[in-house]
Write a structure and sequence with these properties.
7 domains, mainly alpha, WH-like_DNA-bd_sf, TPR repeat, five-stranded parallel β-sheet, 1045 residues, 62% helix
């Protein structure tokens, strides 16, 4: 949260937002519930589906997504700053830091307090835990009754109870028993079955000299347990009872532990720490898995430090397989020589001595660094766990022990911020928190800010979020600026070659960490590991076998995953970049890099070629998901091929074109531009179609200026020279939308389009667009309805949604807004399934206009805001500008003329090209500014702006702004007292809008005033004369209005 806002939030009691100490009026029950849901995940995106489920439960209202948008808009207004609640493609996120939300601050203070308690720093623990408890103002979520609230409130109350217990333990350890009697008694009264709280209360009372009360608390607990659970008191409760009877205030003494002392704070693994604690509570053997440097040892030490009872830590890194039992003996404080054998007998072996030492004791055995002695550890752990029922084992390894009862906890890299996250937010993410913590130790005062945030993120991201690598990089800040550290990471093994001299040799440098794992591989595993480095972003077993030319790759891949060289989600495998960099060096040393990068490119060209036609079929979603999973591989294959094999690159670019178009048109633009530079002005023979698609990808992605014009000029000649059915029928769509109508020859395209069902549907959709642009709404409706049926039959959601969009526009034009919204709901459902951000933004803008035409400004604003967010996410400035133009309309109709002007001007400066789509944005924004000027009483300036709008896009096929500009000129004429002229211009507006006046609510009052000012026959004559004009003549007349003759 930005400090200058002074915004603080509370859910530990009634939901509240405070600005500078004053409570802000958030809104009604649903808005408060929405705020609470966002706050409990502050700083993270909460999926829209989860918000709807949490707010409405099993019976959400119809149009739940729209209802959610409306609640978000109300929340933004209640908070007084729309930027506080960000919309993202998957949902919404409140911009708040950990210390800005009382529940999150409570949880952080609780974690810190527990850490201090585990380390034996009882005073510090008590202070932190007391501060945490002081944040509570009443029952959690006291005024929220939404379906999600009960479970969340119960979770928070359970955490509160645990903190009261830990606070009690800390205060008792400092000798301040009196301070905790009251809170512990309140907790026991509220939760009489909590035996730990009861035991602590007994200890506190005993510590205050109130032995009789302490014994009474025990008797009450024994009775309640028997009545309600049919159970006896736990061993912990019985032990405290016995100690009180004996008058022993020291009780059993502190548990014994030989955990290694830690010199740095524990950062970034709070969730894993919680989960490991639960796994240890539920099971007896837990193994932490992960690559070298993932932080397994540190997590194990922290988790063990929270356990009650004895803990024995055994470092197995320097131990040979046959020395494992002896290492345990040493850790347990037993001499290796052991007991003398009885006469004629033999001394018990080391394992038997360990078993004897552990039998009957509640002990957590921490076995650290098991990967090189995994077989020995597995056998020993199995034998000890079978013989010692009170024993638990926590192991760390790069490979599972593989015995019955083992619970595995793979340790993922530390969480990284999303791309483009601002400096005020990134410090909350674990990877950055660790870097900052360690950096501050060597460079006091170091903090992340807007000046260095990119470098910090680059470091953490390049090092895969691996804790050891991040710590080594932070240590380099002692002698290097953060920017130098970031730029030198291309040679990470050289840069991170100096670490803690007191650490084990395998942890002193980044290379040593990876080399330790590499040396544990056999020859076949090393061969496959180095060849897998050609993949980018992961791979399947099928891809590994195909690229590495190894039909038996599955076994080796599984082995590499077992040894933590690969990460797996069950379907795909991924090599961490640090491991990949090391193994890529081995690939280069073997002289195999070019060979396997070529194999990689050929494999993914075949995959993309197979996918392209299926992206226009009922398998569309399945193949979009498949290609999205291999996004990194597809781009890597194209990038490597641009210089090495431009022909293959052109083929791959073409095969990926529709995938890029559906998922975000800017993705392939830089690669397409680089490929065009390599290919030159003339396409290779037989690849003319591929060349045209390359140009459309470059231009659609925002490449503009003279270079774009030159590419379009050349591609126009090429595309018009193709007189056959296209291999990629999507080229017709992409060319028309990228190049514009003036470069589109429908007669040529008629020869290029095929006769398959998808192409026939495309023809009908194109016919509908042409009819709509010409004002033939009935013809447009027939054609697009047929197109929608055709696309549905093919299974193409994109085509169906675009056809429905046009049908919705026509329904809105007719005034049937209920049908328009229903059609848009269906279209949005299809586009959201595709993940087509830009197209979804278009549909949201259309929804915004439907609401705007009905006077529903809040709903319109919500739709435009959501569309802007998606367009920004898609990286399309023209679409972002279009959304600001729509928000300008909302502000104008809401009476906020300064706000409207700012938004229109933002739209004018925001579009990034001269493509015909951007021209529509410019024309519409100028029209809006003209209406604003008129509302402010400046009719002359209004006329100038409206003329400029018509001049900008006189021949543009999108008619909405042209008709609205003509209506604006009618309003100017009315303001100047020329009602007949106003009637004529209103007629031209109707002519430009298919025979109806524009639906913008500002037009109807103008029309009413003009009619009231004129006799009926004059109105009919003047309006009819304008309305009867052909489209071109009507616009010419409107454009000439008021100009000197």
């Amino acid at each position: 949260m930005r400090e200058d806002w002074g915004m603080r939030f509370g859910v530990l009691g009634p939901v509240e937002a405070r600005v500078g100490g004053a409570v802000a009026g958030v809104g009604g029950p649903t808005v408060r519930a929405l705020l609470a849901m966002l706050l409990l995940d502050a700083g993270r995106v909460v999926p829209a589906e989860r918000l709807i489920d949490g707010l409405y439960g099993a019976e959400p209202p119809s149009g739940a997504a729209n209802a959610l948008q409306s609640q978000v808009s109300r929340l933004r207004r209640g908070l007084g700053d729309a930027a506080l609640v960000e919309g993202r493609p998957a949902g919404y996120r409140i911009v708040a830091g950990e210390d800005d939300v009382d529940a999150l601050r409570f949880e952080r203070l609780a974690r810190d307090g527990r850490r201090e308690l585990a380390a034996g720093r009882h005073d510090a623990a008590a202070e932190l835990l007391a501060e945490a408890l002081g944040l509570w103002r009443g029952p959690a979520l006291a005024d929220v009754s939404a379906p999600f609230a009960e479970a969340q409130a119960a979770r928070l109350e359970e955490e509160r109870a645990s903190v009261v217990e830990e606070y009690g333990a800390a205060r008792l350890a400092t000798g301040d028993a009196e301070a905790v009697v009251a809170p512990l008694r309140d907790l026991v009264d509220a939760r009489p079955l909590r035996e730990r709280a009861r035991a602590l209360l007994m200890r506190a009372l005993h510590g205050c000299g109130r032995q009789a009360e302490a014994l009474a608390v025990f008797e009450d607990g024994r009775r309640i347990l028997a009545e309600e659970l049919g159970a006896d008191p736990s061993k912990e409760l019985a032990d405290v009872h016995l100690a009180i009877l004996r008058g022993d205030r020291s009780e059993d003494g502190e548990p014994r532990a030989n955990l290694p002392a830690q010199l740095t704070s524990f950062v970034g693994r709070d969730e894993e720490l919680r989960r490991v604690g639960k796994m240890l509570a539920d099971g007896r053997l837990v193994t932490l898995l992960g690559p070298g440097g993932a932080g397994k040892t540190r997590l194990a030490v922290e988790a063990a430090g929270r356990e009650r009872g004895d803990v024995c830590f055994v470092d197995l890194a320097p131990v040979a397989p046959d020395e494992v039992p002896k290492a345990l003996l040493g850790a347990l404080g037993l001499r290796e020589g052991g007991m003398r054998p009885a006469p004629g007998g033999r001394a018990p072996d080391a394992v038997e001595r360990v078993r004897t030492a552990l039998d009957g004791r509640r002990v957590l055995l921490v076995l650290d660094n098991c990967e090189h002695v995994v077989a020995s550890v597995a056998g020993l752990a199995h034998r000890l766990l079978s013989a010692c029922p009170d024993l638990r084992v926590l192991a760390t390894s790069r490979e599972a022990l593989g015995i019955t009862g083992e619970a595995l906890r793979p340790l993922p890299p530390l969480e990284l911020p999303p791309e483009g996250a601002p400096a005020r937010e990134v410090a909350a993410y674990p990877a950055v928190r660790l870097f900052l913590d360690r950096a501050e130790a060597v460079r006091p005062g170091f903090a992340v800010d807007e000046g260095n945030v990119r470098d910090v993120l680059r470091i953490c991201r390049a090092l895969d979020g691996l804790p050891l690598a991040i710590e080594l990089a932070a240590a380099r800040l002692r002698s290097l600026p953060v920017r130098d550290v970031a730029t030198r990471l291309d040679d990470r093994f050289r840069l991170l070659s100096r670490g803690d001299r007191t650490a084990a040799p395998r942890h002193q440098t980044l290379r040593a960490v990876v080399e330790w794992s590499w040396d544990l591989l056999d020859a076949a595993e090393q061969t496959l590991a180095r060849r897998l480095t050609v993949f980018s972003g992961g791979f399947t077993l099928e891809a590994a076998a195909g690229v590495c030319r190894d039909d038996d790759a599955a076994d080796a891949v599984a082995s590499l995953a077992d040894k933590s060289l690969l990460q797996s989600d069950g379907v795909r495998y991924r090599m961490l970049d640090t491991v990949r960099a090391f193994c890529a060096e081995r690939l280069a040393e073997a002289g195999e890099t070019e060979r396997f990068e070529r194999a990689h490119a050929e494999y993914f060209l075949a995959l993309a070629g197979r996918a392209d036609p299926l992206l226009r079929s009922g398998e569309q979603l399945e193949w979009l998901t498949l290609l999205a999973a291999d996004h990194g591989n597809l781009h890597a294959a194209l990038r490597r091929s641009i210089r090495r094999d431009p022909v293959l690159a052109l083929q791959l670019n073409a095969a990926l074109s529709w995938y890029w178009w559906l998922r975000g048109r800017v993705e392939g633009a830089p690669l397409a531009a680089a490929l065009l530079d390599e290919v030159g002005a003339d396409p290779p023979e037989g690849l003319e179609e591929e060349y045209v698609l390359c140009v459309t990808n470059a231009v659609s992605g925002g490449v503009s200026g003279e270079q774009a014009v030159a590419w379009l000029d050349r591609a126009e000649t090429v595309v018009h020279g193709i007189r056959r059915h296209l291999r990629y029928p999507v080229a017709i769509v992409m060319w028309a939308l990228a190049a514009g109508p003036e470069r589109t020859d429908n007669a040529v395209f008629a020869q290029q389009i095929g006769d398959d069902p998808w192409s026939r549907a495309l023809v009908k959709m194109s016919d509908g667009f042409v009819a709509q642009f010409a004002g033939d709404m009935a013809g447009a409706e027939r054609a697009c309805a047929e197109a929608a049926r055709g696309f549905r039959a093919c299974g193409d959601r994109w085509g169906a949604a675009n056809s429905l969009d046009t049908l919705a526009q026509i329904a809105d034009w007719r005034g049937d807004r209920e049908r328009a919204l229903a059609l848009l709901d269906e279209a949005l459902g299809q586009m959201e399934l595709l993940g087509a951000l830009e197209d979804t933004a278009d549909l949201l803008y259309q929804r915004g206009y439907v609401h705007l035409h009905g006077g529903e400004l809040d709903e319109a604003r919500a739709a435009f805001e959501r569309g802007v967010e998606l367009a920004r996410r898609a990286g399309t400035p023209d679409k972002v500008a279009g959304g600001y133009q729509g928000l300008g309309d909302v502000a104008r109709l809401g009476g906020d003329l300064p706000g409207a002007r700012r938004l229109y001007e933002t739209a004018l400066t925001g579009y990034a090209s001269e493509r015909f789509i951007a021209v529509a944005v410019r024309g519409t924004a100028l029209t809006g500014l003209g209406w604003v000027a008129l509302a402010e009483g400046d009719a002359g300036r209004a006329r100038e702006l409206l003329h400029e709008s018509l001049d900008t896009a006189f021949d543009h096929p999108v008619f909405r702004h042209r008709a609205f500009a003509a209506a604006g000129l009618a309003a100017v004429a009315l303001a100047e007292g020329d009602a007949p002229r106003a009637a004529l211009l209103l007629g031209t507006a109707a002519a430009a809008n298919g025979g109806r006046l524009p639906a913008d609510p500002a037009v109807a009052p103008v029309s009413s005033q003009v009619r009231d000012a004129l006799p009926d026959d004059v109105w009919d004559a003047e309006f009819g004369r304008g309305a009867a004009l052909p489209l071109g003549e009507a616009l010419t007349l409107a454009r000439a209005d008021g100009l000197p003759t």
